[in-house]
Amino acid sequence: MNRTYLGIMIGPALALLLVGCGQEKSLRSICDEKPELCEHLNKDSWCRYERSDLIRARYNKVTSPTDLHKYELMKDYESYIHCLELAIHVQPKKSKDKRSDRIGSLMYSNQELKKLDTETASSKNPYLLMWHWTRDNNSDAKAAFLALEGKKQLEATELQLALASYYAEDFPKKALRITYHALELLKKNEPIPARGIQGLVSLNIKLKNYKEALVWANVTKILELEKSNISPDRLYRYQSFSEKDLSEIKEQAQVYADQLEDRKFKSPK
Q1: What's the rounded Cα separation, in Å, for the pair 78 and 159?
Q2: Domains along the chain?
Q3: 39 near 54, Cβ under 8 Å?
Q4: How many Å from the N-terminal Cα to the C-terminal Cα in the chain?
Q5: Among 27, 79, 24, which residue's Cα sits nearest to residue 50?
Q6: Global confidence as pTM
Q7: How far apart, in whole angstroms, are the C-alpha atoms of residue 126 and residue 137?
Q8: How far apart are CA 103 and CA 41, in angstroms?
Q9: What are phi and psi of 91, to 5 degrees?
Q10: Measured between alpha carbons, how far is 148 from 180 in angstroms, rounded to an integer?
Q11: 78, 143, 98: which is closest to 8 by C-alpha?
Q12: Which of 69, 81, 149, 247 is the most exposed place for a label (fewest CB within 10 A)?
């Protein structure tokens, strides 16, 4: 999806929606209605997408302070912080003030994320339990999250992938089943998770299902997953494949890719 850039200083010609959803509030209208939500963020073009997502998450949290909106805000702060950490090492050619602005935004965002982390530490929301387990290494949050296995509360792609990661090392077959189920739960408004596809490659290699691993490596290639670092060529060292095998692998990979794009993935029998 192509995303339209809306900076902090928004001119009339840029008064468009950030994404192509007609029902979503424009970034300009958010900043006009609640200018405080657009403050303390860097004003140059670096991290513009992360910043825009952060402003929207701030707005959602202010207008509807649910645990889920708090989690989404924490994730967007995390992404924005990561981007700024890279940006501060780039020296602007024309204005040194830009670097100072980025540093100030980074410090502020770290403080805000820490506040949210503290505020949500006792939450029983599964997304926040996952956050405090995976980010803070909180053993109580981990135990509470794992206790929800098999229950409706964990029936979401992101949560299932976290559960699969727990079993991946010692119980790869179970992790494989959970990962497949995670992809079955994928919704129209959710991106295809690169880490889930990569997980299927790794798990199949661990189980010596090399043909299936190559299928999923080809899926990452077909879908052009941005964060994928898996090349199908790397898998040929595990096993040689006939022309018939390669044809079947290519065909099956396309089937999976089409299912994922339509959000109608079906776990292999």
Answers
A1: 18
A2: 12-119 (no CATH), 148-261 (1.25.40.10)
A3: no
A4: 32
A5: 79
A6: 0.85
A7: 15
A8: 10
A9: -85, 115
A10: 18
A11: 98
A12: 247
